[in-house]
Amino acid sequence: HLHMESDSLPFERRRARVRLGLALGYWGSGPPADAQQLVAEADRLGFDSIWTSEAYGSDALTPLAWWGRGTEKLRLGTAVAQIHARTPAATAMAAATLDHLCGGRFILGLGVSGPQVVEGWHGVSFREQLQTTREYLAIVRQILRRESPLEFSGSRYQLPLPGGQGKPLTLTVHPRRANLPIWLAAQGPRNTALAAEIADGWLAGFHAPRAAAWQRQALAEGFAKREPALDPTGFEVAASLFLAVDDDLERAADRFRPLLALYIGGMGSGRQNFYFDLFARMGFEEDATRVRDLFLGGDRAGAVNAVSTRLVEEVALVGPLAKVREEAERWQTSLPTLLLVGGPIEQLRAAAEVFA
């Protein structure tokens, strides 16, 4: 077990400054017209990385390879590739392939999505997610290390398939990095602790610097269980940064009310919504309940209007430049070592200026 200092986490002891990443997300009805321009601007501004994601439309890997082809220094990450969308072997094959093509700059960010997508789109049971994630990551690591033909016996995965005609196989490609970094997306305490225990980084998603105590505790619990072979000082954290510089605070907050209403009210059901739970954990259960009930009741405009400016300010930097710069100091000293920023280009430039 690792010795934990009471006032810092392992990755914080070597952190120098906040770095910026460009979150390209997933497509709407078609590919975004400005993605390549955003990547070029992020590269010019000295961003650290670019990231793509997937839901049930565009996939995370193909756009990342396409948009990243003209870059030389930016790291390329998935935030996230869905665990249930591919077998562990398919994910390991894709990771090894893309890492070769980009010269060793790929970060494999994995996440479980939610029951609506997992069961409705992929037709896979959403049960036992912690164990599924643990086994999935272990298999991907085993494949990339190529130390022996693949054999695995777990409660969710058995390879080769018992009673079948398969045999243990070894990845034919020699990975550029056998220790290719694997990050996990997590919203709740148990998944966050699991990321600290078995992964190389944590994709935190929404983050509120003033309500991060539970996240620090979850990370500490995970680090305490980490195997000695996994160096915790190399662990990285990324959180989503929503930034709108505007002399009119309400107008700046308006940019993110629809997004927050969608996640709090629409990314799940009345019975299970991890984002609702996250905002409740931040201390906004009353606000989140109002937003969720309006959204699920069909009043989406009402749900958007119910997102208070106070809530927006907890998870975003909004308002006049002086206010944004002052509040940015909390982000620089909070959990994130990497902040993921979306477009347009003006937002990238503002982030670069604020966090220079």
What does the largest sheet look like? 8 strands, parallel, barrel
Low-confidence stretches: 1-6
> Residue share in helices?
40-55%
Number of helices: 14
Distance between the termini: 37 Å
- Give the overall pLDDT as a whole number: 94
Rg, nearest Å: 20 Å
Per the principal axes of the C-alpha atoms, what is the gross shape?
globular
Describe this structure in words.
This protein is of the alpha/beta class and 356 residues long. It is built from 14 helices and 13 strands. Strands 1-2-3-5-8-9-10-13 form an eight-stranded parallel β-barrel, surrounded by five helices. A hairpin with a 4-residue loop joins strand 6 (152-153) and strand 7 (158-159). Helix 6 packs across helix 7. It is globular and about 65 Å long. The two termini are 37 Å apart.
Give the helices and strands, then pairings.
Elements: E1 19-25, H1 35-44, E2 49-52, H2 61-68, E3 75-78, E4 81-82, H3 88-101, E5 106-111, H4 115-120, H5 129-145, E6 152-153, E7 158-159, E8 182-185, H6 189-198, E9 201-205, H7 213-224, E10 236-240, E11 242-245, H8 249-254, H9 257-266, H10 274-296, H11 300-306, H12 309-315, E12 316-319, H13 321-332, E13 338-341, H14 345-354
Parallel strand pairs: 1-2, 1-13, 2-3, 3-5, 4-5, 5-8, 8-9, 9-10, 10-13, 11-12
Antiparallel strand pairs: 6-7
Helix pairs in contact: 3-5, 6-7, 9-10, 9-11, 10-11
